[in-house]
Every structure is written in structure tokens, then in C-alpha cells.
Amino acid sequence: MKTLDIYEELRTNPYPGRGIILGKSADGKSAVTAYFIMGRSVNSRNRVFTETADGIRTEAADPSKLSDPHLIIYAPVRVLGNKTIVTNGDQTDTIYEMMDKQLTFEQSLRGREYEDDAPNYTPRISGIMHVEDGKYNYALSILKSADGDPASVERFTYAYSSPIAGFGHFIHTYIGDGSPLPSFEGEPKKITIPDDMDAFAEGLWDALNADNKVSLFVRYIDIATGEAKSRIINKYEKA
Asked: What is the value of pTM for the model shown?
């Protein structure tokens, strides 16, 4: 698979929607994830990422402007033991609860489908990172309608065992802007992952469309120790 420049991918797409990156740093020491959200409406742009005890949540930047929390207020990142769950919706909680009951990542999503936001039928994208005893693997999932037909749900899971240092995979909700919004197609995109978390976060943020970007989260987890460091960038300040 061709390796893409993640910054160029973002610069040339004004509206990838929400995106998940999972991979391994170039020095092989860190499990890496990034998650970003974008918005076109006042309601979807009125958000910030805030830290929680086991991850992050979206919250209204200005609660007085929040018109509909449905589909925009959720926990994108939660940690369950040695697993880090990253998604673009409330399926984060579904995965957390089902995996806590010993179901697999794929099994935990069988009761979910694309978002109920006709006519877009936005895909639900999800990722899982497993760091334990100096080993690391990850998987990505997308649940989507069949070419915009809500009568058919398509489910794809991509698993990456023993990932290669310096590389990762990027999946996002939309091919680009449009009406209705066209869903992501194909396999997750192969990209490069640097060692420097701050440089990666700043590069991603700078590459996202200035009008549509809302928030970005980046986390590097030391594969040997499990110690995590994170970075949050919000376009809007919380009122």
C-alpha cells in the first residue's frame, strides 16, 4: 500500500469530517493515536475536548449555544485496562462495556450501525489499541451504509498485529464536502508517524481546514511502560 503524507491528505480535503489515526512512532517506542473533529454548523463547531478520568469528552464551548447534543456530545476516548478505545461517537461506551464483558472489539460493534443523520448516514469509525508487556497491536473499524442506502449496513474491521515503527493508518468519515456528505471508501490510509508528539499534533492541526476544524487530541503511549502523554488543541475556548 502506498504511504501517504498525512499533512498533505488533510490540506487537500476541506472536510474529512472526523478522523482517527493509530500507529507506532518512528523510534518504535510509542503507540500513537490522534482524533480530530470538524464542523460546518454552529452546533457542531461549538465544541471542545476536555479531559476525563479515563480519556476525553466533547463538551459545548458555550452551553447557551448548544441546540442539540445528539451525535455531538460523547466520549471519543476511554481507557479499559491496557486498551485505549477511540471512536467518533457514543459507540466508545458500547465498546467499553462489551469488551469489559469479554467480547472482542468486532463483536462489541455488532449491535451498532451508521449514525442516524439522514441523508448523510455518517459512518461510525472506531479504533482499539492494546499495549501490554512491551507488545502493541491495534485495529480499526468502520460501519457504513451501502453507497448511501440506509437499508444495508456494511461492516469492516482492519487488524494490525506487530505494527511497523514509523507508520500508522488513518480513517475518516467523509471523502470530502458535499450534500449529502460522501462516506469514506476503501481501506484505512497508510501514513507516517513521527517521534515528536507536539510536532505531530501541531502538524495535524495546521493541516486541517482553518474554517472547519474544531478540536484535536493526540496521545503517545510508551509501549515498554504504558505511560501516556497527551495533547489537546481546541479552536474555541470553553465559556
From this structure: 0.97
